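step=encode ok
step=design start
structure_in=
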């Protein structure tokens, strides 16, 4: 018999895959580690699910998800040609990196930021040029142009993850005007923030904005995201997407969710109230909390030992996210849960630091 031999491309052989946040099987766990929404999806999604006709699953779905994309276009006040729907915003980024990034077309991104970008760059044989954030408050450095010189794309998660903070939109606009490449704004958390960059994507030829249903829509399990921007950019990216990247069920349920703006607003309001309380409670316990514009907070315990805190919470069946590293390792990232979850979380934290 022939022995196993590696035929992988060197790029793939040497890269590390993305590590998703843990999805534990344990019951009775308070899960605050992947920024899911603690509230259910819109009742309109339940209704749409009840009226699904499984007989129709015999047929392939609409490759361009026309009805869904029309709803997205209506929501954002743009044309159908400025929208591409995808299987989660991770699918948007996979397509984006394949389209714009390779060994000769580097990407630039904030450091720290969403770690998926590095994985997708590595798969293209490309490096990500880091834009180092201020280690105190994770604000942008002055010399954005210097850190991104020669990059073909620059990705801004805004609000950023895992840090949760946002930064001046005017800086992004000015940067995009002068940058010789594509600016991708990852707006996974924009519904929890005071503003967003959608108008830049609709007016500037080199700005794309991506959104997801995973956070504010309470639909992480559905896998739906989209990107908006100049029709020529969208047209080019469509060439690379899987023909049927959104199944029939996802298209139907996502459309119901997109159209229910009122429900989404009410859920976001509850999360924002939870975020304000969580921030105040942690500060009262001596934590350093980064100002959050998202549905989570990035907080450092009084002794700056994020890992110890992460492990102590785990022993009490509370899961948050810990990011090792000289700067990020002082913190943990805590998703805003229900008031009841937050009550237990704060009581547990008090007990941990009373010892
Ligand atoms: C959660 C998250 C996403 C969402 O990814 P999906 O594939 O849509 O679930 C995208 N970007 C950032 C920064 C995130 O934190």
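sequence_out=
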């Amino acid at each position: 018999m022939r022995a196993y031999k590696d035929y992988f491309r060197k790029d793939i052989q040497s890269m590390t895959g993305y590590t998703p946040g843990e999805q534990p099987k344990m019951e009775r766990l308070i899960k605050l580690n992947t920024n899911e929404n603690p509230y259910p999806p819109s009742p309109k999604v339940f209704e749409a699910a009840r009226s699904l006709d499984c007989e129709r699953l015999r047929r392939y779905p609409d490759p361009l998800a026309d009805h869904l994309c029309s709803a997205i276009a209506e929501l954002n006040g743009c044309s159908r040609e400025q929208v591409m729907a995808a299987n989660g915003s991770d699918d948007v980024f996979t397509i984006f990196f394949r389209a714009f990034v390779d060994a000769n077309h580097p990407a630039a991104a904030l450091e720290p930021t969403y770690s998926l970008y590095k994985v997708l760059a590595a798969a293209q044989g490309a490096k990500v040029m880091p834009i180092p954030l201020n280690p105190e408050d994770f604000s942008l450095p002055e010399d954005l142009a210097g850190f991104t010189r020669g990059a073909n794309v620059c990705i801004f998660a805004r609000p950023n993850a895992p840090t949760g903070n946002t930064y001046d939109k005017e800086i992004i606009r000015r940067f995009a005007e002068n940058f010789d490449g594509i600016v991708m704004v990852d707006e996974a958390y924009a519904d929890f923030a005071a503003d967003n960059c959608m108008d830049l994507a609709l007016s500037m030829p080199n700005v794309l904005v991506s959104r997801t249903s995973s956070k504010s829509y309470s639909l992480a399990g559905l896998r739906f995201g989209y990107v908006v921007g100049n029709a020529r950019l969208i047209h080019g990216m469509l060439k690379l997407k899987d023909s049927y990247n959104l199944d029939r069920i996802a298209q139907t349920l996502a459309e119901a969710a997109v159209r229910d703006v009122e429900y989404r607003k009410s859920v976001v309001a509850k999360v924002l109230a939870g975020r304000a309380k969580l921030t105040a409670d942690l500060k009262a316990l001596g934590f350093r909390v980064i100002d959050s514009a998202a549905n989570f907070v990035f907080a450092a315990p009084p002794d700056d030992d994020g890992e110890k805190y992460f492990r102590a919470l785990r022993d009490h069946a509370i899961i948050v996210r810990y990011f090792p590293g000289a700067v990020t390792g002082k913190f943990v990232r805590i998703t805003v849960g229900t008031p009841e979850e937050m009550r237990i979380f704060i009581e547990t934290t008090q007990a941990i630091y009373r010892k």
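step=design ok
step=annotate ok -> The chain has 13 helices and twelve strands.
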